[in-house]
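Structure ticket #2291
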Amino acid sequence: MKNNIPKHTHIISDIKYKGDLPNIEKNMDDAINEINELHVIKKFKYLFNPYGISLFYVLAESHISIHTWEEYQSINIDCFTCGKTNPEKTLNAFLKKINILDENRQIIKRGI
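Resolution: structure written out below.
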C-alpha cells in the first residue's frame, strides 16, 4: 500500500541573543511576509509579567511557536511545516533581524 502522506520538516531552534529583546512579533511577521511561502491562518500572543512573550502562528502548512526568556536572553522556536515549503528560509530571515550570539538548530524530516 502506497502512503501519500506529504513529507514534513520540523525545526527546533534555541537562540541566545545579545542586547534588548528584539521585537519578536514584528520580526517574525516580516520574515513570513518576505519569504512568502507560509500562510498565517491565525496568530495568538501572550505577554508574561514582568517580561517574556509566547507567540503561536497557525499556518495553512502547520505551525510556528515562539517563546522567550528575557532573563536568559533566550528565544525558543518550533516550526513544523508540511509539503514543499522550506521553513528554514523563514527562520533564517527572522534570525537576520536580531542580534544573535548563538543558535542550536535541529532539523527533523517527518512523514513516511
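Closing remark: The first helix runs from residue 24 to 35.
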